[in-house]
Amino acid sequence: MGNLAGLPCDGARSRGVIAAVAVALLVVAVGCAWVLFAPPQLGGQASYVIVNGNSMEPGMHRGDLAIVRPADRYVPGDVVTYRHPDVGHVIHRIIEEKDGRFILKGDHNDFEDSYRPTANDIVGKLWLHIPGAGSLLWHLRSPLWAGLVLFIAFAGVFAGAGASRAAAPVRPGRQRTNGGAPMTPIYRNWQDTLALLLALAIGFAALAWVAFARPGHREVTAEFSYSQRGQFSYEAAAVDARLYDAGKATTGEPVYLRLSDTVAFTFTYEFISPSPAQLTGTYQLVAELGDISGWKRTIPIGEPGSFAGTAFRTDGILRLADLQEQIATLEVQTGVRNDRYTVTIRPKVQVEGDLSGTPFTADFPEAALPMALDRTQLRLDTAKPDAAIAPAATGTVVNRQRVGNAVRILFVSVPVVAARLVGVAGAAVMVACAGALFIAVARRGWSEASDAHALDAVPVRVTGPVAPSDVPVVDVASMEDLERLAARTGGIILREARPGQHVCYVRDGGVVYRFAFDPGEYGTERAA
Fold it and tell me: What is the tens place of the pLDDT at every residue in 248-264?
């Protein structure tokens, strides 16, 4: 009669719950490892740097592995990796920040790095240092190898989950087929569903933890480039127009003092930037008269003006008699006579406004047209006349902006505020669903939830008597009642089939439950 005993299912149920929780924790652990250690090529934020030199000794040595991650802000003292335009990736320490650029130096070096990167050039801040691991993990620099390792890890997780399910003990009487009374799959495989809900709850909780540990906003360095362009031109009417092709002296040609009394200068200005700009400014065209000793006299040749927008034009008249008068007074008063003087035409531009919402001011010192004046003529005085006539300059406006922070999940960046909300709400919903499932399964009965299909289980046929005389026997009213008892106790339904005997039994502890069929229900017996 030992083969009739209904085996207790509490131990199997406990092992199923433990296995479900273990699989959930393993899935979350692998997911956290992905988030923490996945390289950018696979959607992560961890960059792996193998130290190749002695510039960071004694803290780091050749062959060490440094794992760096992007930071919201980099400050002096941080060890960072940045992209050098000529030598590639460099891992050094920040010693100073100046005008939006960082000055770095190796701990072992007695000189500063020549290249000064911006925040956009920095790959990340040192997060983890593993001595000697760089030599062993050389191949993991390739995204292919890193992806293969993560693939094997995930394959192991799902293989383990499948193995634990396959190895789950089957209680006596449990059928692995889906025959019998219909039952919702979530109840038939409640351990798997519970494991999934717990894994999702832990994942959402981890997301909430990361989101709350990260500030809602961060400061970023934004650089906006711009360029200023100018164009000088001049002309001077001549007493004898036949001496010039245009009938007068024009830009680039000398102006002879005997032929011309005045020179008309024109300067046009243009501000160019890919970013939206709102500008105002002032200007005035002047002529700076000077000599080789450094003496200088500024003579306004145009009216001061202002502009709003990105361009303006100004004109001025230079009277050659005024220059000669200034030179004569200087020579008389000082007794110094020079054969040559300098004349520099400047627009004196001052610009202010905002570039992409960033306030800034700028001038245009590169806008200067150098000329030389002697006893007979005024002419250009530069080896590069084209550059002097069309001056240009570039600049950058640096701004630190406060922007919403984000949590990067694989290939997706989620705002911190949204991540906090999703994490808390998701964890709460998953815990609630897991609790509801646990309560529902408990109310249905553990065996009924897992073995509800046993209601129509096929009895096992045996020959010979089954119930001994010393065991109490209880008759049940129907086969359905006997099947329900088998489902609840986990016992096997045995049917004793002999001529004139069609009796089914289920044992529960020290009691045997029996149901005897009416012989008329079986056509084979009637034929016999």
Answer: 999 999 999 999 999 99
How far is it, in rounded angstroms, from Cα 61 to Cα 50?
Answer: 10
Strand 511-516 to 473-475 pairing: parallel
Q: What are the tokens at 169?
A: 């003990």
Phi, psi of 21 (to 5 degrees): -65, -40
User: Is 0.85 surpassed by the pTM of this model?
Assistant: no
Cis omega (within 30 of 0) for bond into 58: yes
φ, ψ for residue 474, nearest 5 deg = -115, 125
Whose tokens are 């399910």? That residue is 165
Going by C-alpha positions, the residue among 210, 212, 217, 216 that lies closest to residue 69 is: 210
Would you give the distance in Å from CA 509 to the centre of its chain? 62
Q: Choose the weakest-confidence range: 134-138, 233-237, 339-343.
A: 134-138
Q: Which of 131, 118, 122, 1 is nearest to 56 (CA)?
A: 131
CB 517, CB 506: distance < 8 Å: no
DSSP H helical segments within 50-189, as ranges? 133-136, 143-166, 185-188
Q: Count, in order, helices (H) and strands (E) of the chain.
A: 11, 28
Tokens, residue 315: 């004109």
Rounded to 5 degrees, what angle do the CA atoms 464, 469, 471 make? 105
